[in-house]
Design a protein that fits this description.
alpha/beta, binds NADP nicotinamide-adenine-dinucleotide phosphate, six-stranded parallel sheet, Rossmann fold, binds guanosine-5'-diphosphate
Length: 319
């Protein structure tokens, strides 16, 4: 009998980690021979090599989905460039070093479409990650994330390790970080809409509302992460995204959230605030070629679930 498969998910308490946990629970008996471990920062600080080694010694993972990161939206990235760079470099270096040291069979790490070059042709594809500087607003995060791809390929070239990476677009869903200043746009605007309804005020959208984004629902992404772990054999990154046609403006997003939460007040734009990169349109051609029957939850439906989750969990949600 072969040894048990132990899948360790770093960042298991976060938006994506919770999505993967829910998806694996839904699978029930289909994955009953596997052990899934969802790490939280209380299990150990992954910025510390000693603490990371202790975690690997304790759980003996055969497979790792590496999600843990310092994560934030545009405004947090602009404010804390040093922390975004240093913390993510340290976490990623420790995780890949331990995956090598403890002979992990496969590690799937997470990049983002926001690490691509600012000046580029569209749509962006997997071959373009390193083709030029990222947008200045998030260069700390972007360069740290790009190095996961470099280091994963280096471990493969030198030691034969099976370390690969995925590139999701902007993600949202239950268990998101709804912090008003540091979050991504969807959870931030859900929280702002909640406050505007409570205080009977306008809903203030930062920037012009014109930038374009592709959004992926955390539960849809979870299924794709597990598919990558099970079936994706390449070392090169793969973009996990909705179609190019599903790209929406920030103003569209604000209206979708307002409708989902039945906000009847006024939506206004604070153009003194940054827009960030205008667009990051990514191609999911590679994903569709390998996973032809791919479907995504309609955004209206998924935004409604995410907003309701925030309302239902207001007392304990990250905010
Ligand atoms: P998240 O909700 O902010 O969760 C971050 C997770 O990382 C939490 O479980 C947190 O643990 C853990 N963590 C952070 N610092 C840690 C440390 N020093 N030691 C141990 N654990 C630590 O993030 P997410 O949105 O799920 O993001 C998951 C991955 O997707 C990240 O790699 C991110 O870069 C990538 N991504 C995110 C987006 C997006 O829109 N959210 C888009 C593209 C890519 P605690 O909760 O216990 O503190
Ligand atoms: P990005 O997709 O990586 O740029 O990060 P975000 O999820 O933070 O989205 C940023 C875009 O949403 C920018 O165009 C912002 O101007 C716009 N935006 C509008 N209101 C907000 C808000 O309340 N929070 C955030 N994070 N972004 C907002």
């Amino acid at each position: 009998m072969s040894a048990q498969k132990v899948v360790m998910v770093t960042g298991g308490t976060g938006l994506v980690g919770k999505g993967i946990e829910a998806y694996i629970q839904q699978q029930g008996d289909a994955r009953k021979d596997e052990q899934w471990v969802y790490l939280r920062s209380a299990d150990g600080d992954l910025r510390s090599l000693e603490q990371t080694q202790a975690i690997f010694r304790k759980y003996k993972p055969t497979h790792v989905i590496h999600l843990a990161a310092r994560v934030g939206g545009l405004f947090s990235n602009m404010k804390y460039k040093v922390e975004f760079f240093r913390e993510n470099i340290a976490i990623n270096d420790n995780i890949l070093a331990c995956c090598h040291e403890f002979k992990v069979v496969k590690c799937v790490s997470c990049l983002s479409t926001c690490i691509f070059p600012d000046k580029t042709t569209y749509p962006i594809d997997e071959t373009m990650v390193h083709n030029g500087p990222p947008h200045f607003s998030n260069e700390g995060y972007a360069y740290a994330k790009r190095m996961i791809d470099v280091l994963s390929r280096a471990y493969n070239a030198q030691h034969g390790c099976k370390f690969t990476t995925v590139i999701p677009t902007n993600i949202y869903g239950p268990h998101d970080n709804y912090h008003l200043a540091d979050s991504h746009v969807i959870p931030g605007l859900i929280h702002k809409t909640y406050n505007a309804m409570k205080d009977n005020t306008d809903l203030v959208i930062y920037g012009t509302g014109k930038p374009l984004r592709q959004f992926v629902y955390s539960l849809d992404l979870a299924k794709l992460f597990v598919w990558v772990l099970d079936k994706y054999e390449e070392l090169d990154p793969i973009i996990l995204s909705v179609d190019e046609a599903d790209e929406v403006s920030i103003a569209d997003v604000a209206h979708t959230i307002a409708e989902a939460m039945n906000f009847q007040g006024k939506i206004v734009f604070d153009t003194s605030k940054a827009d960030g990169q205008f667009k990051k349109t990514a191609s999911n051609k590679k994903l569709r070629s390998l996973y032809p029957d791919l479907t995504f939850t309609p955004m209206k439906e998924a935004v409604k679930v995410s907003a309701q989750w925030f309302i239902d969990n207001y007392a304990t949600a990250r905010k």
